[in-house]
């Protein structure tokens, strides 16, 4: 029995795409509404309080900090930022390199894999799929130590490869899971039409499948960028040479040097947090929409 | 409905898969993913199982098989046993927080009438997820320090507590570690629940409001059962997160004071990279893996799935 009202069905049949509203909020009392808003704003403030504090501290000298820890103090010591940036710019560049390499690798490997797993039938498909998906049950704690042993045998300690390969191998799993779901959801007509025209498998992949799953690729990319940019423990094990260090282990050693000099320390933290915020400004809509488009509809 | 069949049924969504391409190409496409998974996921996982039964000290130093001796010495090691207790405490808190807080906040956001505000709040909380955990935890170190923000708040509300630093006092250190991240709103959980609420058939809300079910009553009796799949997921994710996580230990407490905040994950790290006990470290890794696996299976089996409530 169809739940769709006849009117909507008429419109649909006429070829005009309409969607029923996913939801129309039941009217809530205005008082309740303001209560909810107040609650959310307080929560947001508390949630961001550490960042606000870091931002305030980043402009202070130690004296200013001890006298007025919670307010803006003048003069603003912008030189803290210069001092911090002089140390961490190199770590940031390293992070950009490692994250880019890992991202290209992960997206290549997982779109190809998700495509065949989602669109074709071949002997062993289920086995291979479950073999990959089973790894979602294998936590990082199990693999960290032996992975370090492996990396050492491959002479990848103190190289970016020691991050990039484990990142791809770790990142591809959930990416393939998501991409396969989305590839399966694509309408078969497109592919049939392409095959009638004699499209090769690569063409099907490149011209039809990839453009159709672009939103989920964006979600995967943003997620991975965030995870890798912010990763601390694994890179601090693999990279001990400051020349190759990525941002988080870099900031960690920076913390050691500047422990007693809170201004530049916090300035370093702020600088390290900014790139992702900028990325987010450009991708937030994509990110939120992608998230809601069913990635987590279990 | 009488109209049934008046219009052609919508095409079944892409369940059919074509088979008109050469097989070898399909294997070629999947090969890189499989190869990487074998070398960098499966091999370490399996060699971790083996390592845990050896007396490996450091990479390159020969070791031999010692059976389950590592496990025996772990479970007679008071530090490790204490770390298990701390893990249980932190996980219980983490699961409770990770399941309840995002659900409540997702409901708060979801029930706002203005689409723009709903979007804005989600973006705000998402934004927090981008801030490096390391930065957040380090600043929390400042907040919890002697004469830090928390002390000042206590002073301000008139509580006479004078502290030696919440993370330094052995009586408060574990609680302080659990408190890091307050109010724990930002995170994937909020998106999971929000997506769950969006996925609910709106007619259910109409029916509920006709029946006079609203507010907390509706949340508990109608929304909660409908997002059980999401509850299950957040339980698993929070549990896995708290079993594995040791950021606060790594950055702030080093498992101390004494061993007051030691957790197995950090003890594993110390064994592997500070104490030169990789075999022992692997045993801890294997143990944590089994705990996480067991928990996942229990969850899958006993938490009712969202299908049980499907209305269609």
Description of the molecule:
The complex is a heterodimer of chains A (298) and B (312). Chain A has 298 residues and is an all-alpha fold. Chain A folds into 2 domains: 6-50, no CATH class; 78-295, MetI-like (MetI-like fold, Orthogonal Bundle). Helix content of chain A is 74%, strand content 0%. Chain A contains 13 helices and no strands. Chain A has helices at residues 6-13, 30-57, 62-67, 79-119, 125-133, 140-153, 161-185, 188-196, 201-212, 214-229, 233-238, 247-258, 262-295. The longest helix of chain A has 41 residues, at 79-119. The radius of gyration of chain A is 25 Å and the shape is globular. In chain A, 40% of the residues are buried. The model of chain A is unreliable at 1-25 and 293-298 (pLDDT under 50). Chain B is mainly α. Chain B has a single domain (45-309), classed as MetI-like fold. Helices cover 64% and strands 0% of the residues of chain B. Chain B has helices at 23-51, 69-74, 78-110, 115-130, 133-143, 149-156, 173-179, 188-198, 202-210, 215-226, 228-244, 247-253, 264-273, 278-302. Chain B is globular. The two termini of chain B are 14 Å apart. Chains A and B meet through helix 1, helix 2, helix 4, helix 5 and helix 6 of A and helix 1, helix 3, helix 4, helix 5 and helix 8 of B.
């Amino acid at each position: 029995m169809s739940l769709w009202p006849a009117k909507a069905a008429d419109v649909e049949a006429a070829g005009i795409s309409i969607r029923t509203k996913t939801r129309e909020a039941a009217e809530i009392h205005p008082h309740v509404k303001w209560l909810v808003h107040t609650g959310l704003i307080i929560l947001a403030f508390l949630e961001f309080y550490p960042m606000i504090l870091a931002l305030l501290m980043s402009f202070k000298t130690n004296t200013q900090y001890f006298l007025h820890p919670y307010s803006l103090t003048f003069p603003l010591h912008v030189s803290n930022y210069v001092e911090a940036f002089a140390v961490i710019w190199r770590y940031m560049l390293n992070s950009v390199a490692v994250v880019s390499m890992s991202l290209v690798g992960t997206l290549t490997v997982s779109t190809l894999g998700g495509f065949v797993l989602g669109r074709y039938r071949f002997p062993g498909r289920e086995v291979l799929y479950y073999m990959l998906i089973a790894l979602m049950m294998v936590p990082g704690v199990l693999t960290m130590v032996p992975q370090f042993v492996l990396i050492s045998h491959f002479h990848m300690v103190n190289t970016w490869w020691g991050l990039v390969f484990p990142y791809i191998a770790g990142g591809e799993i959930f990416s393939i899971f998501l991409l396969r779901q989305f590839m399966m959801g694509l309408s078969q007509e497109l592919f049939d039409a392409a095959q009638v025209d004699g499209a090769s498998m690569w063409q099907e992949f490149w011209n039809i499948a990839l453009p159709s799953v672009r939103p989920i690729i964006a979600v995967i990319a943003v997620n991975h960028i965030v995870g890798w940019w912010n990763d601390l423990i694994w890179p601090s094990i693999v990279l001990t040479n400051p020349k190759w260090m990525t941002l988080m282990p870099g900031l960690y050693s920076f913390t050691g040097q500047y422990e007693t000099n809170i201004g530049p320390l916090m300035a370093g933290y702020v600088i390290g947090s900014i790139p992702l915020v900028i990325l987010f400004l450009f991708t937030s809509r994509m990110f939120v929409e992608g998230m809601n488009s069913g990635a987590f509809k279990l | 409905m009488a109209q049934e069949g008046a219009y052609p049924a919508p095409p079944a969504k892409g369940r059919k898969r074509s088979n008109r391409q050469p097989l070898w190409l399909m294997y070629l496409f999947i090969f890189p993913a499989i190869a990487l998974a074998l070398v960098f996921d499966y091999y370490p996982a399996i060699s971790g199982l083996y390592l845990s039964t050896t007396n490996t000290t450091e990479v390159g130093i020969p070791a031999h098989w010692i059976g389950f001796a590592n496990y025996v010495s772990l479970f007679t090691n008071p530090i490790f046993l204490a770390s298990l207790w701390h893990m249980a405490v932190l996980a219980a808190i983490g699961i409770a927080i990770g399941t309840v807080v995002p659900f409540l906040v997702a409901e708060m956001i979801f029930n706002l009438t203005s689409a723009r505000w709903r979007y804005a709040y989600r973006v705000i909380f998402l934004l927090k997820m981008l801030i490096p955990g390391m930065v957040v935890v380090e600043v929390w170190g400042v907040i919890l320090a002697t004469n830090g923000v928390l002390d000042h708040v206590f002073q301000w509300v008139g509580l006479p507590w004078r502290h030696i630093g919440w993370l330094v006092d052995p009586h408060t250190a574990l609680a302080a570690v659990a408190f890091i991240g307050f109010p724990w709103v930002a995170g994937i959980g909020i998106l999971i629940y929000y997506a769950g609420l969006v996925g609910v058939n709106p007619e259910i809300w109409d029916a509920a409001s006709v029946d006079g079910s609203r507010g907390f009553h509706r949340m508990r009796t109608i929304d909660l059962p409908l997002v059980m799949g999401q509850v299950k997921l957040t339980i698993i994710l929070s549990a896995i997160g708290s079993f594995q996580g040791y950021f606060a230990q790594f950055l702030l407490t080093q498992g101390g004071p004494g061993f007051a905040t030691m957790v197995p994950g950090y003890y594993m790290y110390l064994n592997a990279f500070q104490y030169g006990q990789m075999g022992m470290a692997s045993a801890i890794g294997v143990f944590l893996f089994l705990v996480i696996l067991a928990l996942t299976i229990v969850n899958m089996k006993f938490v009712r799935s969202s299908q049980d409530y499907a209305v269609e």
